[in-house]
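Long-time lurker, first post.

We've been arguing in lab meeting about whether magnesium ion would sit comfortably in this protein at all. Half the group thinks yes, half thinks no, and nobody has a model to point at. So I'm putting the question to the forum: if I give you the sequence and the SMILES, can you give me back a predicted structure of the complex? Inputs are below. Any interpretation is welcome too.
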Amino acid sequence: MIIGTAGHIDHGKTTLVRALTGVDTDRLPEEKRRGITIELGFAPLMLEGIGTVGIVDVPGHEAFVRTMVAGATGIDVALLVIAADEGVMPQTREHLAILTLLGTRAGVVALTKCDLVDEDWLALVTADVAESLRGTALESAPIIRTSATRASGLDELRAALGMAIRALPARDALDTFRMPVDRSFSVRGTGTVVTGTVWQGTVTGGDTVVVQPKGKQVRVRSVQSHGSDVARAVPGSRTALALTGIDVVDLGRGSWVCGDPRWPVTTRMRAEVAMLAEGEHPLRPREWVRLHLGTADVGARVVAGGGELQPGDHRAARIILQEPVLARAGDRFVLRRTSPTATIGGGVVVDPLPPRRRFAVWERQADPEAALGRILMEAAGDGGVDPAVLPVRLGLPPSDVTALLKRTDTAVEVEGRIFHPAVVAAAREAVERMVQEGLRVGPLGEGLATALLPSILPFVTDLIEKAVDDLSAAGRIERRGAHLTTPGWQPVLSAEDGQFKLRTLNRLRAAGAEPPDIHELEAEFDRDPIPILRILEREHLVTPVEPGRFYAVEEVERLVTALRGGMTEGREYSPSELREVLGLSRKYLIPFLEYCDRMRITERRATGRVRLPSTT
Ligand SMILES: Nc1nc2c(ncn2[C@@H]2O[C@H](COP(=O)(O)OP(=O)(O)OP(=O)(O)O)[C@@H](O)[C@H]2O)c(=O)[nH]1
Ligand SMILES: [Mg+2]
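Top reply:
Settle the argument with this. Predicted structure of the protein with magnesium ion, as tokens:
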């Protein structure tokens, strides 16, 4: 569990952390000199009955709000520090807004410097604070009066923090490991070390993890929590990881350590955006702002449906990022403007991996099955969705996605990709319709060439193949070699086609052992003979002996009988000897002998052909 401080500059955050933990988190010389916090500070706090929790101390200076956001990301309990003598100040409000935008689940307010004011003033300030908390993440937070200099109210503060922590549900350890990096440095003898608060999942020494957005796979050499070695880092713990195989320049604040190499970074997302009501200017479409997600802080353009976003607006939007982040659906982010600097709003990621083409904005969908259906419908023409990215797009642990895919009727797996059943059905209908239409258009043909389907239908090959399989299994279409027809389909011949068929057959029969090829037939009849020849072939009336030359089947039988009769088994015959047997000219002889080789009637040897034993 992590506690994060928040509050206006000089209100006593760091002093209070030191009073609670004994640790001075302002370590930098510049921090000492200026008496302010500049960088994030970390200290362990022992809480009775709970154990050690981490405290992240953030700067209150208005120039360092981006550092505050990086510190506040991933905390469980906010400790909002308000000096009793000054009361609610600008960064009190801004930090409160940020905590609310980040969805901070619990908080405690420490009214510090109570030694500086009298009871009447304290009552006024307390009422003012309570008023400011209304409608924020800390709406129901207790307000504890403290003084660090007199060490008063600290036990009450510890008790209130303990209560807040105990009321929180544990984070899911059975999830993909993800930790935003808040510091990185190199330690002599250890190598590169990164620290952060584990958002989800666990990591163990020896594990391979990915550092994003560099996409570098590295090994975790060792894991530390609060300064001591631990076997594994668990969600919500302050963690230091020693990594091998990466240089400290390749990662820093804003990087991520992730347990799944298939989790992609993104520069575009669907989100719900909420603008702070107290903002002064609308957010124009395509205006560059800063988006803070995890410890990352990147340029972003927010395009909401319906034009510019006014203060107080809450709408679905498209977000385009200047640099990649590692986001998951459900992640919270903060939007800030840089000149003048101000927190203007924030939101929640709805889908971090929208399609590359122009995509529609989506509102959040609480029902995971409906969210899945929406993603799969959209991916209809894209070859479905890789199941590895579904946890990212649905914002669920992988095990929840596996269970969802198992129980839902909304997803079908085809060759390792996930499709919507409506898409599978649409592919099936399209294939069936194509086959029927193909037969109508070319009634003399052999049906629809299966290989043609992917180029004429808006579905990926795997889906088309599945449709063909399903349709033939269901008896709705018939496979005929490389073609598809309706079941039992026969070509429909017009009277003219029928006559042409008869003439072609008679012509081939009359031609005997030396029939014309398709070009000669076409010239002779002034018509493409191939569709008719294919029909005659299917009816076993003619057969192609060589490409483009068909024989009447009786003629082939006659020639084969003559060949067998003229050859003694075991003896090799030269082509000229066989020419004597068959009485064919050389032009017809060689193709016919090759046909006989293919049909296993004869076999070619070194010096001639032998007769093979008849199998029929
Ligand atoms: N009298 C009195 N002074 C306090 C108390 N707590 C803090 N101070 C003083 O207030 C000043 C600022 O305290 P810090 O703890 O540095 O304030 P901070 O909120 O951490 O400031 P930033 O990190 O820069 O935002 C210091 O001079 C402290 O000694 C208190 O309870 N009573
Ligand atoms: Mg400080």
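For your lab meeting: The chain is about 30% helix and 25% strand. The mean pLDDT is 93. Whichever side wins, do check it experimentally.
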